[in-house]
Amino acid sequence: MTKADNMLSILWMLRSGKRKTAKQLAEALDIHVRTVYRCIDSLCASGVPIVAESGPNGGYTILSRFADSPLVFDAEEQKSLIHAAIFAKEAGYPHTEALDRATDKLKQYANEAQLEALERHGGGLSVIYPPLDGAFRSYLQKLEEAAGQGRTVEMTYDKGRGEPSPPRLFDPYGIVYWKGNWYAVGHCGYRDEVRSFRVDRIRGLRRTDGRFERPESFSAKDYLLGQLLRDSAEGTSWETVSIHGQEQALNELCRHWLFGHALTCREPEKATFKLERSTLTTYVPYFLMPYGTALRIESPLLVRRMREAGAKLLAHYEQMEPVNDNGEGDDE
């Protein structure tokens, strides 16, 4: 028999629950005992929780819980699943309880050495993400379930102006995670068109009895990117902006979703972008402020807006009462 046949035979013999020595396995399969050792090592490497006990009554056994396990993952697959679970949970994955149960099962069907390796690799990976409240996770879960079931929801949404708009019917075609934010993409009953909504701005969500069918071949991800970038929007005015700075600072800048997709030319200490003019007069100056004097900008329009934004920020803080180191206002 081939090595794969021997491994499978040994696996089924151990799944019976009876302890078997290497000699007994070799005699049953008519193979050399060293072949048994090699097959046992290969099975352990593939994720099978085999336990070896020494002594007069020793031998090989397999964890009884393994009989209930439908799949076998090798060490690299187990590690990747644990890491993926960490990323998903920290990013706000809506079904965290089910994810915890899945990873617990993965650890349950591991022997002591495999479990130690999983804990070690899991503890070596961290994700920094803003804390999520219960309502946010609840909205994500309801949106995902509604998308999977084709069920219409009633949504109350805040456009960022402080006051939520009237409730609207919404058919969620999918949810998308993009650069630290979750978006719901689907048909908006109020506008009667496909739109995207940031989940952190949802103020209320209720299931309805309405049903919908997702358009065939519709991609929530492609739609969202198209809306965010709007490369082909009619009447859009563009500005070419060159930014000089240290390579590390420019690398960070290019990781931003807008700048990364607008990059047209990159040199070690220079990056050139094609940006929509309207963004240069709105939030781009405030995004660049944290870089301080680390950047040098070649764009009269953006430089002027940086000056205006800086002056506005300075005037804002000059109006505030100075505070001393004790947290109390200075008395003159």
Description:
This protein has 332 residues and is α+β, with helices and mostly antiparallel strands. The protein has four domains: 3-65, Winged helix-like DNA-binding domain superfamily/Winged helix DNA-binding domain (Arc Repressor Mutant, subunit A); 75-123; 134-229, SH3 type barrels; 238-318, Alpha-Beta Plaits (2-Layer Sandwich), CATH 3.30.70. It contains 13 helices and eleven strands. A hairpin with a 5-residue loop joins strand 1 (50-53) and strand 2. Helix 2 (22-29) packs across helix 3 and helix 4 (75-90) runs parallel beside helix 6.
The end-to-end distance, rounded to whole angstroms, is 94 Å
Binned strand content: 15-25%
Q: Flag low-confidence runs.
A: 231-235
Under the CATH scheme, the architecture of the largest domain is Roll
Largest sheet: 5 strands, antiparallel
CATH topology value of the largest domain: SH3 type barrels
Task: Give the strand line-up of the largest sheet.
Answer: 6-5-4-3-7
Q: What series of H and E elements makes up the topology?
A: HHHEEHHHHEEEEEHEHHEEHHEH
Protein name: WYL domain-containing protein
Pfam families: HTH_11, WYL
InterPro entries: CBASS_pafABC_assoc_protein, HTH_11, WH-like_DNA-bd_sf, WH_DNA-bd_sf, WYL_dom
Organism: Cohnella rhizosphaerae
